[in-house]
């Protein structure tokens, strides 16, 4: 997917004696959106944008190092060794040593002679990176102006890290005017450097509008245009993040120094063997602990991190190096809320900076982008949504810009479950987002094209491309788990055995028979507000992958059967 | 030379056969014997004439033959022709007569031509080879026929007879047959003398029309059309239906036309086909009766027939046109390369299946035997695999010796070392003069030969012709532009050796310096640098030449490098008058990078540039990506130093440039030129605010140098907000020294202290002094103690033991000094 960005000006910062202007140029190909105000706490905003930038440019994907020079050196050594085996004469050996010494001298001299060239080449590479890299590779953040906040959303280069910076209106001393909407902003490395010069002793004007700072070309005022090959996975990742957020998550509150201690150790020590997990150990009523593997170094968190759950939980998360992106925010942070979905599943870190909220979403592990592993939307609530209800929910959310599910249900007249399903659908269609810190759904059009409920419903019904190989028998073609789940429901091969109330929700247990004819026992833990907190099954697929590859067909079938009941009002 | 025996024939006599032979006489000289009989093996009577001397023998020989012809004897093929009952026999007889150029056969052939059917082509071919003009009317009528084979033979016969009018008519008819796009492409190709477009046009045609189209183009036969056909024949379609038939047709035309190059390529291609690809079957219209029937296309039998026919053709050439044979054979030989080799076995060499190669190169060898069924050659015994040293086994060696130029053709184009060895031996041992008389264009290809001795021969011959004191500069120029790397390398070597000669000639000097190859130009510049410094006229000429080159866009990245280098090394003074400042600025904006660099050098020596551009123009140049342009801008800024005393804003802007040299220049000016009164507190703060360490360093030096003239407390207040870790230490030091005591200033410092301690890349000394600072301030008054204790409470929880302990100690000190202050830590929290 080629993403077109067209900016009339460039984002930048100008400084005067007592005033500075921060201007973000918006994509003129998107809906008109603007915000003008005066920043009250520019330092905080600066640090948050620095963290956002760190996420945008981060790329932790493993790439094997290709070291041709080193290999050539080894080959040279090898050849020399083999050649030396054949040299018997002492005189010849001495001659070889002399020549090698001379060769070493010449190599050093060559190195010295080429030093300016290497320095110039390095400078050139830096220049090329600064000027070309961002034009081709940096995925500009998505900015949304809401009635209560301005939010910036971005993905890292490796698509494994999601960041959302929400600047509440309390951050601003004065707000002149704004128009709600979603667009992209020009976000360059140069801008990052300029933002570093924001200070509180200068009043800072903050503008988000199409003009930015004018770009001058040879022929006069011009515009800056980017065409970036936006991976489908990047777009799908945006949708998956919000599906993952709407899962029932376990929350732990940390002090900033707690998180700093963990990140500092990760920074200082290099794990050369597996496992390299950051393991959270949570016991009800006790302060949370984290263990860094493989060293087994444990951290007991500060008072306030007591776990409020009902039973001990141990959650291992991977890709912990990505937490280093938060380094700039920790000194300014008040508290950190960690949201955990389960072993190998995404985790979210919500940093409370007062008028700013910074949400960092990490996929299950670094090499697993948000679309590569689990399909979280399968776990998210999903009754069949009609185009009409989707349109009603969209219109209402667009009007109010943000709402809770119950609030929206009242406003639209749709039932609570139907509203939740519609909101889930809108998130999956890129027309809404879930604000984890605020606990509300917000309107956010990820795509420039106008919303069409029919098209969105069609898109929702397309099964995820993910296949679950363990769900099929030998010799049969692999099928998507949700299709298999629908088949189980259609064959009436799923039975809800029990709906047992537990603390904070209820548990569903069922009995299902898959395509292979075996009967298995899926189990779902659903929170009181309808979110799936956990799940398990006795099938092979779950035994092998747990939830890291998404739910198995039996859990999905149980969910669908439960949804049918809810729709019928039997359990609602 | 003793003539071969001649056999004559008289159909209506008892003694039907007469054999004339020559033999040495016992008394010296030669005897001519005439024997007669009913058959050639039953000769009854004989007559002997002579003896004759060797010089007299040919004349007497002809007299005897003339007498026999007068008696009614005729050559045997003619007899066959007149008496044969089978069309195949007639055809073969006619061809034999044609090869012999037997003019007596023209009338008989013309008499049987109207009734001929299958043998028509052979009769026409024979007429063409004999070359008697009385055949022209018949040939013209045949050339107008629709049937391809008849038309082909007749047109080629007319061409051999030199019938301009008849050929022109045939060509006009051929052009009419071409599809319109091909005709258009042909006309265009003829006008441009380039055949690539024509080849593309043919390739774009419908597949079934391509072969016919190529055959028609070959029939037209001008150089453009033939070149296009030869290019198109390299496409891998030879054995496809609708192609194969026309491939054969083109091969036959090439043989008739004596176009050995095309014939050599085709015979080799057909041989490769025979080795690799199977034939196909397709329903095609017969050229014989016009019916569509399923036919074998490119069957092995046909291909083998053609391979044998190629050697038969060469043999006929050797017998009847001996001076031509070596050239035709050489064209066939040069087609073979290492890719034709296969894994040798005990009895089969690597080229066992290379039919024509074996026939030509090892045709007289007794080591090798031919197996017709498999079309393979094999050694008679295993020991025969060893090639006898220094002995040629080539077929018809005497013909090769009579045409030594053919050896050169092999040396310049052959791909096989075996072929090179054969030709090289002949040239070096017996025909060196041929090489010495050959034009240089034919020697250069020897440098790219795949056979080292051939390369050495070519090099030695070229070296022999080269005289550094009187060099052939045209040859050097030719070599320098040659597509072969080896030739260019030699040219560059000669260029270096002959530098004194060409650098004294202005025309050549300019030619080499403005050479299309930038490397050559650079080398020439190095060699001629001294000469250029002495020769102002050459410099001026070259300057204007290079100027025009540099103004054009670069053909490929780096193409202007050498020109710019020459210009920057030697021609700056001469180029200056050719530019005004605006043009130079335009060149910095739109020129190639080397041209921009040159423009930078030129601008640096233009004192008037500052006046014309103004400071804003210079500012733009100072941010230019090319270093010399930036250097020029800095130079211009130095000229405007006085202006910065009152308004240094431009220097402050440039101090933030992304280019280190620009920053360095601007900072240097700021330090040297701008007085403190102009710079003021804001100027120093602006430098300290920078995110670049070199700029911060200057700001720090200025702040320390003028600390008595600025408000250091205010500066410290500002610096604590700096996010850069390099400035934190300085900020803390300033704060410690100059910030007033009190809770207010301590509160302002907390972000800095947190940044220093909660840092993933910390500075240990800074952390220590930050904790010390907090401990010191915490014991001064209860308000500061409260703020310090709150911060220390955070730091006490850090995993770094030294920091944590220092924070705990500080907290203990605060608790002892002010017990009423709330301690953020609880006893036992760390247990």
Written overview of the protein:
The complex is a heterodimer of chains A (572) and B (831). Chain A is of the alpha+beta class and 572 residues long. Chain A has an 8-stranded antiparallel beta sheet, sandwiched between helices. The radius of gyration of chain A is 28 Å and the shape is globular. Chain A starts with a strand and ends with a helix. By secondary structure, chain B is α+β, with helices and mostly antiparallel strands. Chain B is 62% helix and 6% strand. In chain B, a hairpin with a 2-residue loop joins strand 3 (30-39) and strand 4 (42-52). In chain B, helix 28 (518-534) runs parallel beside helix 30, helix 30 (561-570) packs parallel to helix 33 and helix 43 (743-757) packs parallel to helix 45 (782-796). The N and C termini of chain B lie far apart (123 Å). The chains are: A alpha+beta (572), B alpha+beta (831). Chain A binds chain B through residues 17, 43, 46-47, 50, 123, 127, 130, 190, 193, 196-197, 199-201, 218, 255-258, 260-261, 263-265, 267, 299, 302-303, 324, 327-328, 330-332, and chain B through 589-590, 625, 658, 660, 682, 689-691, 717-718, 721, 723-724, 751, 754-755, 757-761, 794-795, 797-800, 826, 829.
Please describe the topology of this protein.
The complex is a heterodimer of chains A (572) and B (831).
Chain A: E1 2-7, E2 9-10, E3 12-15, E4 19-25, E5 34-39, H1 42-57, H2 68-86, H3 90-136, E6 142-145, E7 149-155, E8 161-168, E9 172-179, E10 181-184, H4 189-195, E11 203-209, E12 213-217, E13 220-222, E14 224-229, H5 232-245, E15 250-254, H6 256-268, E16 278-282, E17 289-292, E18 297-300, E19 313-317, E20 335-340, E21 347-352, E22 356-362, H7 387-400, E23 402-403, H8 405-412, H9 416-428, E24 432-435, E25 440-443, H10 453-461, H11 481-490, E26 494-502, E27 505-513, E28 519-520, E29 523-527, E30 532-536, H12 540-545, H13 553-568
Parallel strand pairs in A: 4-11
Antiparallel strand pairs in A: 1-14, 2-12, 3-4, 5-9, 5-11, 6-7, 6-10, 7-8, 8-22, 12-13, 15-20, 16-17, 16-19, 17-18, 20-21, 21-22, 23-25, 24-25, 26-27, 27-28, 27-29, 29-30
Helix pairs in contact in A: 7-8, 7-9, 7-10, 8-9, 11-13
Chain B: E1 6-9, E2 17-24, E3 30-39, E4 42-52, H1 57-70, H2 76-83, H3 87-100, H4 106-112, H5 120-130, H6 136-143, H7 148-161, H8 164-177, H9 180-192, H10 196-203, H11 207-220, H12 223-232, H13 244-257, H14 260-276, E5 280-285, E6 292-297, H15 300-320, H16 325-333, H17 355-361, E7 368-371, E8 376-379, H18 397-402, H19 405-413, H20 417-429, H21 432-437, H22 440-443, H23 452-465, H24 473-480, H25 485-497, H26 499-503, H27 506-513, H28 518-534, H29 536-551, H30 561-570, H31 572-575, H32 581-590, H33 593-604, H34 609-622, H35 627-639, H36 641-644, H37 649-654, H38 660-673, H39 676-688, H40 693-705, H41 712-719, H42 725-738, H43 743-757, H44 764-778, H45 782-796, H46 801-817
């Amino acid at each position: 997917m080629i993403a077109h960005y067209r900016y009339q000006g460039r984002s930048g910062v100008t400084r005067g004696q007592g005033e500075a202007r921060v201007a973000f140029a918006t994509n003129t190909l998107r809906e008109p959106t603007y915000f003008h105000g005066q920043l009250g706490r520019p330092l905080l905003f600066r640090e948050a944008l620095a963290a956002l930038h760190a996420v945008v440019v981060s790329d932790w994907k493993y790439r094997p190092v290709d070291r041709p020079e080193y290999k050539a050196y080894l080959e040279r050594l090898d050849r020399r060794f083999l050649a030396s085996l054949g040299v018997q004469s002492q005189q010849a050996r001495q001659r070889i040593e002399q020549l090698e010494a001379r060769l070493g001298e010449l190599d050093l001299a060559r190195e010295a002679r080429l030093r300016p060239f290497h320095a110039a080449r390095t400078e050139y590479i830096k220049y090329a990176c600064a000027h070309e890299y961002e034009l081709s590779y940096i995925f500009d953040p998505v900015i949304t102006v809401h009635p209560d906040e301005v939010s910036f959303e971005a993905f890292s280069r490796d698509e494994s890290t999601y960041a959302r910076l929400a600047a509440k209106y309390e951050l601003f001393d004065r707000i002149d005017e704004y128009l709600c909407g979603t667009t992209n902003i020009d976000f360059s490395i140069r801008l990052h450097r300029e933002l570093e010069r924001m200070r509180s002793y200068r009043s800072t004007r903050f503008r988000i509008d199409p003009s930015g700072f004018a770009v001058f070309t040879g022929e006069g005022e011009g515009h800056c245009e980017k065409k970036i090959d936006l991976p489908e996975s990047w777009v799908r990742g945006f949708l998956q993040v919000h599906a993952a957020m709407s899962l029932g998550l376990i929350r732990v509150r940390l002090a900033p120094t707690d998180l700093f201690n963990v990140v500092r150790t990760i920074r200082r020590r290099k794990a050369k063997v597996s496992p390299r997990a950051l393991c959270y150990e949570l016991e009800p009523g006790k302060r949370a602990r984290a263990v860094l593997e493989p060293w087994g170094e444990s951290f007991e968190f500060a008072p306030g991190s007591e776990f409020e759950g009902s039973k001990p939980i141990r959650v291992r998360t991977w890709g912990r190096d990505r937490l280093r992106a938060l380094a700039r925010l920790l000194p300014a942070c008040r508290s950190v809320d960690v949201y955990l979905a389960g072993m190998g599943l995404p985790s979210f870190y919500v940093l409370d900076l007062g008028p700013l909220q910074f949400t960092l979403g990490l996929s299950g592990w670094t090499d697993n982008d948000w679309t590569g592993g689990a399909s979280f939307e399968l776990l998210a609530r999903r009754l069949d949504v009609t185009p009409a209800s989707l349109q009603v929910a969209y219109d209402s959310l667009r009007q109010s810009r943000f709402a809770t599910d119950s609030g929206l249900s009242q406003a639209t007249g749709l039932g609570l479950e139907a509203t939740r399903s519609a909101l889930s659908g809108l998130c999956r269609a890129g027309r809404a987002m879930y604000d984890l810190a605020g606990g509300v759904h917000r309107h956010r059009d990820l795509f420039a094209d106008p919303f069409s409920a029919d098209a969105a419903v069609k898109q929702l019904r397309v099964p995820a491309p993910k296949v679950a190989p363990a769900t099929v028998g030998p010799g049969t073609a692999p099928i998507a788990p949700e299709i298999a789940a629908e088949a189980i429901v259609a064959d009436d091969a799923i039975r809800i055995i029990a709906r047992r109330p537990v603390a904070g929700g209820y548990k569903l247990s069922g009995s299902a028979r898959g395509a292979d004819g075996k009967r298995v026992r899926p189990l779902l833990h659903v929170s009181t507000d309808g979110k799936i907190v956990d799940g398990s099954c006795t099938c092979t697929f779950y035994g092998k992958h747990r939830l890291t590859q998404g739910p198995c067909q039996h859990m999905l079938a149980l969910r669908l059967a439960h949804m049918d009941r809810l729709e019928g009002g039997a359990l609602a | 030379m003793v003539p071969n025996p001649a056999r004559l024939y008289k159909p209506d006599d008892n003694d039907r056969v007469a054999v004339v032979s020559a033999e040495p006489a016992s008394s010296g000289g030669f005897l001519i014997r005439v024997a007669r009989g009913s058959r050639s093996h039953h000769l009854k009577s004989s007559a002997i004439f002579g003896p004759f001397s060797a010089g007299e023998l040919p004349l007497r020989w002809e007299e005897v033959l003339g007498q026999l012809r007068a008696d009614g004897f005729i050559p045997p093929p003619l007899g066959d022709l007149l008496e044969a009952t089978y069309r195949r026999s007639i055809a073969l007889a006619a061809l034999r007569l044609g090869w012999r150029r037997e003019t007596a056969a023209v009338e008989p052939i013309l008499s049987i031509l109207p009734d001929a059917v299958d043998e028509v082509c052979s009769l026409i071919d024979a007429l063409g080879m004999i070359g008697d003009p009385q055949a022209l009317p018949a040939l013209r009528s045949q050339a107008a026929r629709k049937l391809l084979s008849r038309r082909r033979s007749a047109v080629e016969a007319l061409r051999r007879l030199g019938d301009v009018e008849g050929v022109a008519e045939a060509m006009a008819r051929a052009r009419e047959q071409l599809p319109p796009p091909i005709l258009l492409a042909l006309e265009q190709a003829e006008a441009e003398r380039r055949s690539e477009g024509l080849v593309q046009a043919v390739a774009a045609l419908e597949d079934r029309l391509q072969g016919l189209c190529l055959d028609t183009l070959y029939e037209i036969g001008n150089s453009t059309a033939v070149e296009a056909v030869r290019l198109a024949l390299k496409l891998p379609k030879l054995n496809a239906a609708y192609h194969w038939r026309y491939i054969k047709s083109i091969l036959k035309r090439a043989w008739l036309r004596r176009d050995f190059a095309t014939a050599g390529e085709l015979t080799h291609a057909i041989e490769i086909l025979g080795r690799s690809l199977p034939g196909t079957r397709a329903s095609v219209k017969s050229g014989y009766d016009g019916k569509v029937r399923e036919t074998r296309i490119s069957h092995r039998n046909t291909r083998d027939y053609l391979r044998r026919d190629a050697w038969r053709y060469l043999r006929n050439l050797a017998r009847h046109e001996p001076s031509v044979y070596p050239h035709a054979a050489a064209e066939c030989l040069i087609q073979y390369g290492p890719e034709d080799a296969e894994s040798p076995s005990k009895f089969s060499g690597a080229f066992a299946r290379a039919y024509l190669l074996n026939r030509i190169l090892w045709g007289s060898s007794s080591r090798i035997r031919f197996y017709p069924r498999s079309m393979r050659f094999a050694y008679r015994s295993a020991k025969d695999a060893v090639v006898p040293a220094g002995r040629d086994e080539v077929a018809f060696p005497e013909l090769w010796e009579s045409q030594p130029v053919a050896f050169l053709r092999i040396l310049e184009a052959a791909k096989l070392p075996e072929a090179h060895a054969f030709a090289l031996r002949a040239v070096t041992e017996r025909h060196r003069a041929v090489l010495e008389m050959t034009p240089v264009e034919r020697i250069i290809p020897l440098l790219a030969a795949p056979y080292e001795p051939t390369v050495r021969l070519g090099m030695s011959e070229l070296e022999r012709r080269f005289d550094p004191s009187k060099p052939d500069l045209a040859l050097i120029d030719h070599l320098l532009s040659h597509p072969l790397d080896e030739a260019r390398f030699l040219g560059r070597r000669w260029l270096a050796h002959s530098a004194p000669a060409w650098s004294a000639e202005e025309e050549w000097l300019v030619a080499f310096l403005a050479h299309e190859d930038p490397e050559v130009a650079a080398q020439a510049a190095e060699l001629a640098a001294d000469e250029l410094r002495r020769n102002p006229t050459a410099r001026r000429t070259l300057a204007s030449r290079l100027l025009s080159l540099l103004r054009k866009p670069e053909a490929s990245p780096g193409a202007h490098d050498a020109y710019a280098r020459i210009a920057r090394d030697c021609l700056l003074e001469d180029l200056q008058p050719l530019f005004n400042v605006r043009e130079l600025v335009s060149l910095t904006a739109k020129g190639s990078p080397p041209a921009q660099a040159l423009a930078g050098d030129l601008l640096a020596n233009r004192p008037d540039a500052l006046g014309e551009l103004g400071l804003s123009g210079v500012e733009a140049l100072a941010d230019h990506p090319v270093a010399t342009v930036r250097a020029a801008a800095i130079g211009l800024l130095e000229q405007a130093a006085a202006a910065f005393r009152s308004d240094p804003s431009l220097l402050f802007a440039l101090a933030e440039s992304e280019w280190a040299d620009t920053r360095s220049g601007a900072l240097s000016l700021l330090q040297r030129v701008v007085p403190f009164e102009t710079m003021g507190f804001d100027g120093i703060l602006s430098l300290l605010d920078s995110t670049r360490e070199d700029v911060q360093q200057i700001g720090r030096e200025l702040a320390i140098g003028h600390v008595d003239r600025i408000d250091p407390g205010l500066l410290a207040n500002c610096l604590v907000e700096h996010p850069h870790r390099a400035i934190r230490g300085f900020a803390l030091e300033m704060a410690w020294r100059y910030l007033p005591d009190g809770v207010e200033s301590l509160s302002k410092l907390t972000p800095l202290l947190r940044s220093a301690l909660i840092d993933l890349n910390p500075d240990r000394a800074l952390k220590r002094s930050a904790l010390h600072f907090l401990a010191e301030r915490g014991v001064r008054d209860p308000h500061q103690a409260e703020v310090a204790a709150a911060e220390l409470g955070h730091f006490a929880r850090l995993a770094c033991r030294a920091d944590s302990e220092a924070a705990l100690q500080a907290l203990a000190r605060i608790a002892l000094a002010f017990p009423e202050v709330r301690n953020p830590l609880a006893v036992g929290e760390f247990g």
